[in-house]
Amino acid sequence: MGNFAYGTTVALACAVLVALPGGRAGAQDEVKNLEPPNDKQGVDFRQFLRGSIYTPRDVKNWVAGVDTQYIGEKYDRDVGWVHHDSAHKHGVHGAIVFYTYEKTGERRLINHADKPCRISSYGDSFTNCDQVSDGESWQEFLAAHLGEPVRNFGTSGHSVYQAYVRMRREEKRRPVKYIILNIYSDDHRRSLFGWANLAHAWPGRPTTPYIRKSNPTTGEFVESPNPCPTAEEFANLCSLDWVYNRFQGDFFVRILLARANIENKTPEYSYDDIVALAREQGTPMEIGSAEELENGVQNVLERWALYASMRIVEKVEEFATVHGQKVLYVLSHHRAHMARRLKDGYRFDQAFVDFLKQENLAYVDLMEAHEKDFAQFKGSVDEYIERYYIGHYNPLGNQFTAFAIKDELVRMMEPKPPAYNPASLAVED
Question: Which of 111, 130, 302, 422 could link 144 by a cystine bridge, Cβ 3.0 to 4.6 Å?
Answer without folding.
Answer: 111
